[in-house]
Design brief:
The chain is built from ten helices and no strands. By secondary structure, the protein is mainly α. The relative contact order is 0.11.
Length: about 200
């Protein structure tokens, strides 16, 4: 019953917006009794928070699966694979952007919903930082933050501008960021130092 409620909430909240969908509609379309609903979720906001966590876990599992499938590839390629998954996601029918970004606009101050959004915002920086740790360079935290912003921007552009290419553009931008962090060969560094 809990899973049926979540599946229905996921479908309706993501497609139509959270405030646009009343709890009675979720209950009616899930076929679950109202009393059963309140056994699992005390309020609509509790259901919203769990919907967001569920979405977050689905996305991180999908991205992690792709990254781990490329375990034998260079770290740069594993990082870029995150943008390949994003391209798949935004190409799917019914894509409406990041569920947590949408929820943040609808619930700017609700503690439970904000906690679920914060939960989602931790996994991608952690993944990028872990993958960057395999590369010899400094400022990994700054680069991880930059890669997250590129990812977020592509997600937003895909939704707001209906862009089907934003993830491809983001991947190219990520390639440039990764190339810029590579230490220059000794000869190139020496030439730069002497102005030649």
């Amino acid at each position: 019953m809990r899973e049926r409620l979540l599946e229905t909430a996921d479908r309706l909240f993501y497609a139509e917006g959270i405030h646009a969908v009343g709890i009675d509609r979720v209950i009616a379309e899930s076929g679950v009794a109202k009393s059963t609903m309140y056994v699992h979720f005390r309020t609509k906001e509790d259901l919203v928070a769990e919907y967001l966590r569920r979405r977050s876990e689905t996305t991180r599992a999908r991205v992690t699966r792709e990254v781990e499938a490329r375990a034998q590839e260079p770290a740069e390629e594993r990082i870029l694979s995150v943008f390949d998954v994003l391209h798949e996601v935004i190409s799917e029918p019914g894509f409406r952007g990041c569920a947590c970004a949408n929820a943040a606009a609808e619930y700017p101050r609700h503690a439970g919903v904000q906690e679920a959004i914060t939960y989602d915002r931790t996994w991608l920086p952690a993944l990028f930082s872990r993958l960057l740790g395999a590369l010899p360079a400094d400022n990994d935290d700054e680069l991880a933050a930059a890669l997250v912003q590129v990812y977020d921007g592509a997600n937003a552009a895909a939704h707001i501008n209906h862009s089907k290419t934003s993830a491809r553009t983001a991947r190219k931008t990520a390639e440039l960021l990764l190339a810029a962090r590579r230490p220059a060969p000794n000869g190139d560094r020496a030439a730069a130092d002497t102005g030649h």
